[in-house]
Amino acid sequence: MARRLLVVEDRESLRRMLVRALGGEGYAVAAAGSVAEARTILAAAGGGDEREGRIDLVLSDLMLPDGSGLDVLALVRARAAPQPPPPVVVLTGFGSVAAAVAAMKLGAADFLEKPVDIDRLFRLVATLVGEESVATLFAPPGASPIVGAHPRLGAAIRALERVAPTESTVLLTGESGTGKELFAHALHALSPRRAGPFVAVNCAAIPETLVEAELFGHEKGAFTGADRRRPGRFEMASRGTLLLDEVGELPLGVQAKVLRVLDDGRFERVGGSTTLTADVRLVAATNRDLGRMVAEGTFRADLLYRLEIFPIELPPLRERASDIPLVARHLAAEISARLKLAPFELAPDALALLAAEPWPGNVRQLANVLERAAILAAGERVSAEQVARLLGRKAAGETEPAHPPAAEPGHERLRQALRESGGDKKAAATALGISYRTLLRRIEEHDLKGYPRYRD
């Protein structure tokens, strides 16, 4: 069955051209000239709920006579439940980064500038409707590869590719370990500043009293221990890219100085009076909710507005579990090479076990587990049982209680079980439904050693 597309474009000549071009590629294409017409077509298609008549992708102009492409996007996302909404690609004649950001914040899959590059349109549509294989490795020259084929990761990579050639400030958000520094390196590698330095600074790792000097440098004698002039990270990154990692950890006073650099490119070294000019492309990264910090008064609203000119959100590993086998194999090969160890293979059941993990530490935590596996595997295949041990699970032959309790026993339950078993710890552990090791730990925690045989 042909994939069904909806083109929403008020200019009739362009609408007809898009319908004809996409129809020639084998798609069934419906057309609308306004938000109202798009609403009618989506309603007739069952809001995307049924396979027959389902709209698989929407291509919408940004400016429409009765609204905008953002209205179409909101309409698609509202009507698509309970199925995932079809991807929406927004057309803009303005080449505006702000318009693209607004669309992507609402969930647009991508945007295209007018005049439309038909070959790019065909490739994008084929990828988004699943008719073209998605690359599993994104490796800009000079940057470490980003591995995965999940649509959310793909959307983040497409956003990266669109903003990298510009000078716009980028804000990378996501949990710790999701690859924000990898994305920052890729942004630099794809930018006109690629020949310049890439400088990264972890704002959380610098004592609060030294943050300003670290970023902006200091003059000799500016403070105790400043025995010579020292350039800061803004100077070191001149004509290149500066990554402010964990930007949410910046003290409020330093936030004001960073804002000034973003506004007019000027700063002074600590203890100096000469005004210097920063020639850097700034990328910021955080795992914190900066909007909430603004509400709490710990982060400047005006700085947030300047940082989030183009935000890119990186999904946590647990939300792209289908990528975990790809990532695990890539990491296994990379770690073995780095440690100069024989390559090892992950058995299918081991990969399945890894894919089922929640990974609160994301890719960084997965890499740590695989590094231990590389050291222990000695070039052999790693089984699910070995992975389970690395994850702190029970190995084969070690049994858990048949009916584990919802919570570990408290003081009185421990006393009762020990009293009824006459102090026999194995019998008490069985009665409580916990392991012998857990019982010993709980006895220690509740000061019940020797109870009831030697104390009561």
Instruction: Note the quaternary state here.
Output: single chain
**CATH-level-2 architecture of the largest domain:** 3-Layer(aba) Sandwich
CATH class of the largest domain: Alpha Beta
Helix content: 40-55%
List the total number of helices: 19
Count the beta strands.
Answer: 18
Q: By CATH's scheme, which homologous superfamily of the largest domain applies?
A: P-loop containing nucleotide triphosphate hydrolases
Q: Mind sketching the topology for me?
A:
Layout: E1 4-8, H1 12-24, E2 28-32, H2 35-44, E3 57-61, E4 63-64, E5 67-68, H3 69-79, E6 88-92, H4 97-105, E7 110-113, H5 118-128, E8 137-138, E9 146-147, H6 151-163, E10 170-173, H7 180-189, E11 198-202, H8 211-216, H9 233-236, E12 240-245, H10 252-264, E13 266-268, E14 275-277, E15 280-286, H11 290-296, H12 301-307, E16 310-313, H13 324-338, E17 345-346, H14 348-355, H15 362-377, E18 381-382, H16 384-390, H17 411-420, H18 425-432, H19 436-445
Parallel strand pairs: 1-2, 1-3, 3-6, 6-7, 10-15, 10-16, 11-12, 12-15, 17-18
Antiparallel strand pairs: 4-5, 8-9, 13-14
Helix pairs in contact: 2-3, 13-15, 14-16, 17-18, 18-19
Describe the structure.
The chain has 4 domains: 4-133, Rossmann fold (3-Layer(aba) Sandwich), CATH 3.40.50; 143-313, 3-Layer(aba) Sandwich (Rossmann fold), CATH 3.40.50.300; 318-390, Helicase, Ruva Protein, domain 3 (Orthogonal Bundle), CATH 1.10.8; 401-456, Arc Repressor Mutant, subunit A (Orthogonal Bundle), CATH 1.10.10. It is built from 19 helices and 18 strands. The protein has helices at 12-24, 35-44, 69-79, 97-105, 118-128, 151-163, 180-189, 211-216, 233-236, 252-264, 290-296, 301-307, 324-338, 348-355, 362-377, 384-390, 411-420, 425-432, 436-445; strands spanning 4-8, 28-32, 57-61, 63-64, 67-68, 88-92, 110-113, 137-138, 146-147, 170-173, 198-202, 240-245, 266-268, 275-277, 280-286, 310-313, 345-346, 381-382. The strands form 6 sheets. The protein has a 5-stranded parallel beta sheet, sandwiched between helices. It has a 5-stranded parallel beta sheet with strand order 11-12-15-10-16. α2 (35-44) packs parallel to α3 (69-79) and α13 (324-338) crosses α15. It starts with a strand and ends in an 11-residue tail after the last helix. 34% of the residues are buried.
